[in-house]
């Protein structure tokens, strides 16, 4: 009952005329930017983050919720019409969605993606409202050792599964932790990595870091592989679904939601695994398996629902524990930090009205997406015809303007340029950007919990194992780190049951999958011979 009354209070706040207007603006802005080629939800949120900076916190986060879900919706439009997913979680949607579009069924593909996103987003947000307070009650009972262990688990789990190698993932994490050290030590007052620059004494603004790494780095990378010829999007009529389309879509929507939410809430779960599982499941359960690979509507409905349910799932650990599990949630955490609000177990107590207004606005934004964007689908298709040199020049302009508006200091533009170049180089050499952002955000918090734990144990490292939950988590961490070595050892000692070439192919399959996803994401931006 307490959850219900709090949610109703959140709706009362979110439905005031001004806040409702911000929700509408957020949905339209998020979709408009998210639908552009090569821009995933994380980059959309990072680019528009400074837009909300001058607003009152509740209004800002209501607008932010619209941008978040709008960016997710826009990504499916690009995947279906251009076969250019903005991130790897949209690759599976593009497989069948673009085939449907080429077969003259773009309207049906967009409709099932939009309605599936609405269904999954609504159910996922409802689960968020129910689960987040439960997670908070559990988190409040944890001490510093357990909380430190949980944050270390989140960092290592996300880092270990991203990129084409663990080495690249941990290199990116190291860069993020180093950037997080810049500034003044909160205990001793000692300046760290400031290089004699007084403006670095307060550390790097997380908004500037997020915009630089995601927006500037991505724009430079795509511009470096830009074709001068305009994109040719597939024409779209008014999205609609026939009776047979509804019949074939509603079960995949529900199954995709069931896959997406739990994976989104887990550290390193993300949306890639549930979208793939949803696609495989629908292919096996479909009465029309011969259509898969040629434009099966189930192959769009299920993965798109899984993708959006995972997006709602990522907000559960982000709000309740302050732990982002994907890039978009990391940028949202940066938004909280920029307002001086610390997500975690105390958030529902200290900022209860804001949190419940945010959750209520997710329901509102989800409904607005369906009402506004189905009629506007032909307009979004025309937006894809923008000349991309103008597009990415505009992105760099607004990113620069947004970063400058945070503190109104020209020094931030230097930081933006340096970190933007770093983001470009990371993409060039295959380093995932999410571990860097997590290192910047969580690094100082992990340091604080570590110091608190050691102070409680009078400097004895055994204090890190002072709680049973902490011990269990360290065992999980050890399994995550040691499993690849144990797996290789088991395979080496097991008698070969297949030719060496087959074993070699299996051994390299994870890396190939990652590279193929990467190629799929950026294939539309590469130079053609």
TrEMBL record:
- Which InterPro entries does the record associate with it? DUF112_TM (IPR002823)
Listed A to Z, the keywords are:
Membrane, Transmembrane, Transmembrane helix
Q: What positions does the domain DUF112 occupy?
A: 21-438
Q: What is this protein called?
A: Tripartite tricarboxylate transporter permease
Say if the entry is tagged with keyword Lipid biosynthesis.
Answer: no
Q: Does the keyword Ribosomal protein apply?
A: no
The record, for Pfam families, names:
TctA (PF01970)
Transmembrane residues, as ranges? 20-39, 45-69, 109-136, 142-162, 169-186, 206-224, 318-341, 353-377, 389-407, 413-443, 464-486
Stretches the record annotates as Disordered: 505-529
- Give the Basic and acidic residues compositional bias ranges: 512-529
| Alphabetical list of PANTHER family matching this protein | TRICARBOXYLIC TRANSPORT PROTEIN (PTHR35342)
């Amino acid at each position: 009952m307490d959850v219900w009354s709090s949610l109703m209070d959140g709706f009362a706040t979110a439905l005031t005329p001004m806040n409702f207007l911000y929700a509408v603006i957020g949905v339209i802005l998020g979709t408009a930017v998210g639908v552009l080629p090569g821009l995933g939800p994380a980059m959309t949120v990072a680019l528009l983050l400074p837009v909300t900076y001058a607003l009152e916190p509740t209004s800002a986060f209501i607008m932010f919720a619209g941008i978040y879900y709008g960016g997710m919706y826009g990504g499916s439009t690009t995947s279906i019409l251009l076969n250019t997913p903005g991130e790897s979680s949209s690759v599976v949607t593009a497989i069948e969605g673009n085939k449907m579009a080429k077969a003259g069924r773009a309207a049906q593909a967009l409709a099932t993606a939009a309605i599936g996103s609405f269904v999954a987003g609504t159910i996922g947000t409802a689960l968020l409202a129910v689960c987040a307070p439960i997670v908070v009650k559990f988190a409040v009972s944890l001490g510093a050792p357990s909380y430190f262990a949980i944050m270390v688990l989140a960092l290592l789990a996300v880092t270990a599964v991203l990129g084409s190698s663990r080495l690249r993932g941990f290199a990116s994490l190291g860069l993020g932790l180093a950037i997080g050290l810049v500034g003044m030590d909160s205990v001793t007052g000692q300046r760290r990595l400031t290089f004699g620059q007084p403006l670095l004494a307060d550390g790097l603004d997380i908004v500037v870091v997020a915009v630089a790494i995601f927006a500037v780095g991505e724009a430079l990378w795509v511009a470096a592989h830009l074709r001068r010829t305009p994109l040719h999007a597939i024409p779209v009529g008014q999205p609609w679904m026939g009776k047979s389309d509804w019949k074939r879509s509603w079960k995949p929507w529900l199954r995709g939601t069931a896959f997406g939410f739990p994976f989104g809430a887990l550290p390193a779960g993300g949306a890639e695994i549930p979208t793939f599982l949803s696609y495989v499941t629908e292919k096996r359960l479909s009465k029309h398996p011969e259509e898969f690979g040629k434009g099966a509507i189930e192959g769009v409905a299920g993965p798109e629902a899984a993708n959006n349910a995972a997006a709602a799932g990522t907000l559960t650990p982000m709000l309740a524990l302050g732990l982002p599990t994907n890039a978009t949630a990391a940028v949202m955490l940066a938004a909280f930090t920029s307002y001086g609000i610390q997500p975690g177990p105390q958030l529902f107590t200290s900022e209860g009205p804001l949190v419940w207004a945010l959750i209520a606005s997710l329901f509102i934004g989800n409904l607005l997406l369906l009402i506004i964007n189905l009629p506007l689908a032909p307009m979004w298709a025309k937006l894809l015809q923008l000349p991309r040199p103008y597009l990415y020049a505009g992105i760099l302009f607004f990113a620069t303007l947004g970063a400058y508006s945070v503190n109104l200091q020209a020094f931030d533009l230097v930081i933006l340029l340096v970190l933007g170049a770093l983001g470009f180089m990371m993409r060039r050499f295959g380093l995932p950007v999410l571990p860097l952002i997590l290192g910047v955000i969580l690094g100082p918090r992990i340091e604080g919990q570590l110091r608190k734990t050691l102070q409680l144990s009078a400097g004895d490292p055994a204090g890190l194992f002072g709680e049973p939950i902490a011990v269990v988590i360290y065992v999980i961490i050890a399994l995550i780190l040691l499993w690849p070595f144990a797996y290789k050892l088991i395979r080496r000692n097991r008698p070969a049951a297949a030719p060496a070439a087959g074993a070699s192919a299996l051994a390299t399959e994870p890396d190939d999958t990652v590279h193929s996803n990467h190629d799929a994401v950026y294939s539309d931006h590469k130079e053609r011979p």
